[in-house]
Amino acid sequence: MATSPTASTTSSTFDDEAKELWPEWKFSFGKHLPVFLIPDLQDDENYEEWRFMAHTKLRACNLEGFIEGTETPPQGDDSRIARLNQKVFAERRQYAFRIIYDSIHPILQQLKSSGHWILDANDRDPKVLWDAVHRWDVDRPLTYKCRLMEELVDICHCQHNSDILAYRDRAFWLRTRLKRMGTPIADQLYMGFLVKGLRTYDSIWADYLYKQIESGSLNPSQLEVDIGSQYPFYKQLRERREGDLKNKLVELESQIRGQPRNKRRRKAKDHHSGPSGVAKRCSNRH
Q1: How many domains does the chain have?
Q2: Is residue 251, in this structure, part of any structural domain at all?
């Protein structure tokens, strides 16, 4: 008497058939999948990095259609091919959801408390979760936007220990963040803020960049590149100036400290030598 196959055997056979019919499904779930380390989404500081890496992994796995809305459930009857299509679609959809969900644990509580997303066990849609994270990023109070705007207006290299590259990157992030929230900053205004923060670092450098901006030969991207490429030269120039100034201050300090000692020595010598010594020195002066 023939026995019916077990559930595990049936499932294994079903998966093998699906992998033979859909090689891209095998690639997406196989052990040869490329490794993409998606950083955990901590806050809006690393949102751009998280979004880029998550989208890259979804695209590499041929799953980006689930967040773009182009991947639709397969239609068909109750035939074997139709059931395989539905099986593959459900597995790929679940995998796309897990890629997003597993990388946003630090902000899950914020998503739920803000009402942007509520976990529904019956409908774990990757696109719904992806869009919820986007809304969480852009829906911020006006006070937060004003604080970032104020930081950009008053940004200065001294806030970053004169690390010009960190200063430039922070200004770029502030502008990008404000733009994501629907508050774009005009190019010339942004460049003016960026150069203004360099004036106390090197006024000659700042004046040179101002002239380049006013002549129309620089755009924001070129300005950021120029700051990065010119920074080593002006850093050496600044260090040389600071070194020369320090040497002059040390020399001046030694002169100031040495002058009273000489006077005291002269007074002591005059006291021991008597009036003849004073008269002799006075005659030498004349």
Answers
A1: 2
A2: no
Q: Please tell me whether the overall predicted TM-score, pTM, comes out greater than 0.90 for this model.
A: no
C-beta of residue 132 within 8 angstroms of C-beta of residue 111: yes
Locate all alpha helices (DSSP H) within the chain, ordered by sequence. Answer: 7-21, 23-29, 47-60, 65-68, 80-101, 108-114, 126-138, 142-153, 164-180, 187-196, 203-214, 220-273, 275-285
Sequence-ordered list of residues with C-beta below 8 angstroms from that of 67, at least 6 positions apart, any chain: 55, 58, 96, 100, 126, 127, 130
Q: Are residues 22 and 66 in the same domain?
A: yes
Question: Cα angle at 63 between 58 and 69, to 5 degrees?
Answer: 110
Phi and psi torsions of 76, nearest 5°: 165, 180
Question: CA dist 268 to 257, 263, 272, Å?
Answer: 18, 9, 6
pLDDT tens digit sequence for 244-257: 777 777 777 777 77
Quick check: is 212 in a domain? yes
Residue-range definition of the domain harbouring residue 216: 142-240
Residue 80 lies in a domain: yes
Does residue 190 share a domain with residue 205?
yes
pLDDT in tens, 177-226: 999 999 999 999 999 999 999 999 999 999 999 999 999 999 999 999 99
Question: Does 133 share its domain with 153?
Answer: no
Residue 121 lies in a domain: yes
Can you tell me the distance from the alpha carbon of 170 to that of 185, in angstroms, rounded to the nearest whole number? 15
